[in-house]
Amino acid sequence: MPTYTFEITRSQAAGAKRRLDIFQISLEERMTVLDALFEIQRKHDVSLAFRCSCRVGMCGTCAVYVNRVPRLACRTRVSILASKEVTVGPLPHLPVIKDLVVSMDPFFDHWKKILPAFHPSADLSELARIPVDSEFFRQTERKRDCITCGACFSACGIKASSDQYLGPAAINKAFLRLMDPRDSAVDERLRVLNDDYGGIWRCHTQFNCVTVCPKGINLTDSIGRLKRAMLRPAKFKKVVCG
């Protein structure tokens, strides 16, 4: 089995000075970064703190900064990194709780601003039908799989300089809600999205979010579509599903 050098960012508590701990471990070809973290925890340092849950890329809990790129540890095979030296740190732009564990509060604070819950515009006592040939279905089919892992939030260059910017995931969620003709919270979301400091106009179309999204969501496309649609906001008040 090949041997890798892992450099892990460590901190004993929030705000504490960080350090790098180095570990030499041997891994099989199929093993992931998450496997490596468990190996380090079991055999080298039981105090290493990191998060995981589903271990199959569905929950987003294990997102970390691997070789300076936000990735899901459970989906990232060490062998594909093409390097015998692997650095693992906490996600940028989020407060560190300990080691690789971050607080997701800033991410979800912005998420809440766009009113992510469904606000029905009418009595929906019966299931609403969404035709597969409708505009809502066509434009959102591949954008509904966000697992709120925070990878796009951490990769965003604008977040590095603006705490107020909503971030790609929140804006994509707003896009999904605005495209849904059954939802009524149109004006409230448009007001948040149109904010000069935190809204969609802050996006510089760098595509960092698209590159790191583990679900392959084209977040930049969602933002671009919203920018164009904001020039005709009345569009969202029409029934666009057919």
Description:
This protein is an alpha+beta fold and 242 residues long. Helices cover 28% and strands 14% of the residues. The protein is built from eight helices and seven strands. A five-stranded mixed β-sheet has the order 2-1-5-3-4. Helix 2 packs parallel to helix 5 (168-179) and helix 5 (168-179) crosses helix 8 (219-229). The model has no long low-confidence stretch (mean pLDDT 90).
Shape: elongated
Q: How do the strands of the widest beta sheet line up side by side?
A: 2-1-5-3-4
Major β-sheet annotation: 5 strands, mixed
**Gyration radius from CA atoms, angstroms:** 20 Å
- Number of helical runs? 8
| Head-to-tail CA distance between termini | 57 Å
Quantity of strands, as a count? 7
Order of helices and strands: EEHEEEEEHHHHHHH
Structural class: alpha+beta
Tell me the strand percentage band: 5-15%
The share of residues in helices is 25-40%
**What are the segments in which pLDDT stays under 50 over at least 5 consecutive residues?**
none
What is the overall pLDDT average? 90
